[in-house]
Amino acid sequence: MNSLKKFKFKNKYVLVRVDFNVPLDKKGKVKDNSRIKTALPTIEYLIKKKAMVILITHLGKPKGKIVPELKLDPVYKELKKFLKKNVYKLNDCIGPEVDRFIDKMVPGEVVLLENLRFYSEEENNNKNFALELSKNADYYVNDAFATLHRKHASVDTLASLLPSAPGFLVEKEIKELKKALKPKKPLIWLIGGIKEDKYKALKTIAKKANFALVGSGLVDLVKIKNKKIILPVDFTKDKKNRHLDIGPKTIKLFKSYLKKAKTIIWNGPLGMFEKPKFAKGTKQIANFIAKRKAVKIIGGGESAEAIHKYKLTKKMTWVSTGGGASLEFLLGKKLPGIEALEKNQKKFK
Ligand code: 3PG
Question: All domains of the chain, ordered by start, with CATH?
Answer without folding.
Answer: 4-173+336-348 (3.40.50.1260), 182-330 (3.40.50.1260)
